[in-house]
């Protein structure tokens, strides 16, 4: 008999949720972690970045206090050390929270680096080199190195920063998200390579903190996965804040000085320039942690740095599953969590709905925020839909005006024949909270009629959502 029904490797949002759901379903469960309970998301990703961005947001409000009829007397300025300390404290709190949840759900924690050695068996060795010091100490009651067996093994080992050849982060002058989150002192100038969610959130944080920020993006728009119109809107807002943005441009070479970097940049027309900045952030994506896991020994299929799975998170090898970042894009915490539940419920034979990637929302917590779900206008057209598009600007939304946050827009895309909501795209205040309304609607296969029939409370930011639907059908009221 195996030691466990289910062993989960990795305790990020994918792994720890899988372990909790497994325990809830009566499986004897263990989770292996080599570095920090709660994974990248809580320790070096979603949560500590939002803590930093919150400090930046409050700084911004303080700087604009006059706009609200308020006078701040005395000094109101950023204390970088305290900001970073707050962010790290929040990461620790999340980390402790997962430790509590493992205990509460009677999930055994095994501390160390796991490797599949043969079918249903893993070997756990002491952690060799954590990605970032300091490593969180293991929980007191954690088991240690040894061989463990299980009927089902779920790989949830996450991802790490991608490094481009010749432009590799060195932790000093060229930062990954790890160093970007714990600066010892503010650089005066910063070059951010890559304008996906991670790059643009750091660009937003540092710009609000007063740093001269240049963003270099190889694709034609910033936040390239978003709808082109939303990307263009966001770009204008970033530029208004003083960010310098180069799109269709790539960093080809970096020369390191004593305390600065000079980046050689080439645009798509062959134009060349150099930019010198105190620090550079490499934010060119992440790659799955698939190495040293024994995947080859068992013959588990991988593709472009990720484990290949089916829509119930099964790999090609019986008894081995993969979820979260290591199982491919989109590399988002809520995707990892949802896969975790699907995976475990399928093992239990509960017939969960398979993952529908079109229903995964994406949120970027820059200023202004960006959020979306479903197809962009370009993708809807490419998929052969005849479409109706609605738009509404926050400038005509009473709540946004009252908040002093009236820059932004909502865009909705419908199938012209059926009225099915195909996609929703938002940029502006609190849109990362608003998007869930459209996510629920899409999951319920909503049509324009139902959305127009829905009563939205007044005054709320959410009214832009309804107005954008009305606009798609020529019935907009407040514009
Ligand atoms: C700066 C930043 C900001 C982000 N912001 C957001 C956001 O706002 N919203 C969002 O949805 N996503 C965000 N993400 C992405 C999010 O963090 C990931 O999608 C999420 O953490 C993936 O969860 P996971 O469980 O797959 O893996 P991870 O969270 O990466 O966890 C994997 C765990 O496995 C452990 N591990 C790896 N190999 C082994 C081994 N051999 N043995 C034992 N343990 C091992 C690792 O130590 C790690 O703790 C952000 C990421 C970054 C870097």
TrEMBL record:
It catalyses: N(6)-[(R)-dihydrolipoyl]-L-lysyl-[protein] + NAD(+) = N(6)-[(R)-lipoyl]-L-lysyl-[protein] + NADH + H(+). Its EC number is 1.8.1.4. Residues 4-340 form the FAD/NAD(P)-binding domain. It is found in: Cytoplasm. It is an enzyme of class 1 (oxidoreductase). InterPro entries: Class-I_Pyr_Nuc-Dis_Oxidored, FAD/NAD-bd_sf, FAD/NAD-binding_dom, FAD/NAD-linked_Rdtase_dimer_sf, Lipoamide_DH, Pyr_nuc-diS_OxRdtase, Pyr_nucl-diS_OxRdtase_dimer. Keywords: FAD, Flavoprotein, NAD, Oxidoreductase, Redox-active center. Residues 360-468 form the Pyridine nucleotide-disulphide oxidoreductase dimerisation domain. Its cofactor is FAD. Pfam families: Pyr_redox_2, Pyr_redox_dim. Binds 1 FAD per subunit. Gene3D superfamilies: 3.30.390.30, FAD/NAD(P)-binding domain. PANTHER family: DIHYDROLIPOYL DEHYDROGENASE, DISULFIDE OXIDOREDUCTASE. The active site is a redox-active disulfide bond. Belongs to the class-I pyridine nucleotide-disulfide oxidoreductase family. NCBIfam families: lipoamide_DH. This is Dihydrolipoyl dehydrogenase. The lineage of its organism: Bacteria, Pseudomonadati, Pseudomonadota, Alphaproteobacteria, Hyphomicrobiales.
